[in-house]
Amino acid sequence: MVTASETQSVNQEKLDAFLGKVVGDFGAALSSVLAYIGQKLGLYQALAAIGPLTPAELACHTGTVERYVREWLINQAASGYVVYDPADGRFSLAPEQAIALTDERSPFYVGGGFYVVKAMMRAEPRITDAFRHGGGILWDDHDPDLFVGTERFFRPGYAAHLVSKWIPALSGVEEKLAAGGLVADIGCGHGATTIFMAQAYPNSRFHGFDSHEPSIQHARRAADEAGVGDRVHFRVARASDFPGDGYNMIAFFDSLHDMGDPVGAMRHARQALATDGSVLIVEPMAGNTIEENFNPVGRAFSAASTLCSTANSLALGGPALGAVATEEALRETVLLGGFKHFRRATETPFNRVFEARR
Ligand SMILES: C[S@@+](CC[C@H](N)C(=O)[O-])C[C@H]1O[C@@H](n2cnc3c(N)ncnc32)[C@H](O)[C@@H]1O
Q1: Is residue 97 domain-shared with residue 141, that is, in the same domain?
Q2: Nearest CA to ligand 1 atom 13
Q3: 281 and 136 both lie in a single domain
Q4: Which of 28, 150, 188, 313 is buried deepest, with most CB atoms within 10 A?
Q5: pLDDT band at residue 8 under the 50/70/90 scheme
Q6: Bridge partner residues of 343 (DSSP)
């Protein structure tokens, strides 16, 4: 076999740059496991709350073993996730690091992403097998940290944009929900979006549906804790057969592209929607061409798509729209489901927000 290096001349500078990038990626991948540990054990929280600490002090405050904490801190400082002061041997979080790593109410919180990475890495043996033999892995069969991580990762964006920007960008929906409407949230997961909407529109009623029973149980507890349990109802149901009709809005938050039968989901949504209602479809940001995904966001979402979204749809014999589905592929799905109108209502750096109407 003739290798590429035998047929093409190698540019040493480009090779060095590429190897440097790969070493950086090794470090990032390994460090993401350490960031997960830091989230889980409250190491970042302690640094944020107590201030500059030596490894021994951080271990003492968190009930952990100093030797591991010292190694963890070296990695975290090398990663740019914590700050080290050689003058006193203490580690701390800069305000920006503290917001991103510890403040779950902030739109800039990113801690949930490490749960997603950890859970998706555990899917590798089954995904490798699916590359060889087809099929995939169902959402329900993933490491449970995927369900925790998905909520924690997406929740800050929903908190920042859903009520203030996304719903107002739809045709007349905000007014209907303020007056008192009926909403279905399909593939609601842990129910963060359903609960945010219920808090914002106290005159409306909300139904969250998901095929994953443990997520529905979690969502019910969360609604009770948020004090909206009387107006929000969560139930196990599929997108193709959820109950009810006359909904003013039917929402799909990061769920349509995962589905085994997204056209069937649209068809069912159409017949469950009020005549003048809107379907809100929130999808990950992605390009209209392959090369428009060659950026950090496209890199992350296409990886998650391979390990989770595409795999769930293929496990169900579906079309595998995937997390980087083009707008055209989504439009076709929606129109095949019987809708006449489809448009991009708004967007953020991480999400595309579409509206479908009858
Ligand atoms: C990536 S998660 C998003 C969860 C939630 N909407 C969020 O944004 O945090 C996709 C969700 O869709 C659900 N799901 C996938 N296919 C479904 C179907 N056919 N019917 C109902 N739920 C489905 C999964 O169980 C999962 O909870």
Answers
A1: no
A2: 187
A3: yes
A4: 188
A5: confident
A6: 355
Q: Using CA positions, which residue lies closest to atom 27 of ligand 1? A: 189
Helices 192-200, 213-225: crossing angle, 10 deg rounding: 30
Atom of ligand 1 nearest to the CA of 239: 20
Residue 162 lies in a domain: yes
Q: Is 187 in the pocket of ligand 1 (CB under 6 A)?
A: yes
Number of domains observed in the structure of the chain: 2
C-alpha 83 – ligand 1 centre gap (Å) = 38
Please identify, by atom number, the ligand 1 atom nearest to the C-alpha of residue 192: 9
How far, in Å, from the CA of 39 to the mean position of ligand 1? 24
Q: What is the CATH number of the domain that holds 96?
A: 1.10.10.10
User: Which of 41, 72, 103 is the last residue before a domain boundary?
Assistant: 103
Q: Which of 258, 259, 280, 282 to mutate to test the pocket of ligand 1 (most atoms within 8 A of CB)?
A: 258
Q: pLDDT tens across 122-154, in order?
A: 999 999 999 999 999 999 999 999 999 999 999
Token look-up 């949930």 returns 112
**Which structural domain range is residue 279 located in?**
118-357
Residue 85 has pLDDT above 90, yes or no: yes
Does 269 map to a domain?
A: yes
In a domain, residue 295? The reply is yes
Which residue puts its alpha carbon closest to atom 9 of ligand 1? 151
Instruction: Tell me the CATH number at 209.
Output: 3.40.50.150
Kindly give the number of the ligand 1 atom that is closest to the alpha carbon of 189.
Answer: 27
- Sign, CA torsion 95/96/102/106: positive
Long-range pairs, 272-275, Cβ under 8 A, ≥24: 272/184, 272/242, 272/244, 272/245, 272/246, 272/247, 273/245, 273/247, 273/358, 274/182, 274/246, 274/247, 274/248, 275/358
Q: Which amino acid is at 12?
A: Q
User: What distance in angstroms lies between residue 186's CA and the mean position of ligand 1's atoms?
Assistant: 7
Q: Is 289 left (phi over 0), alpha (psi -120 to 50) or beta?
A: beta
What global pTM score does this model have?
Answer: 0.94
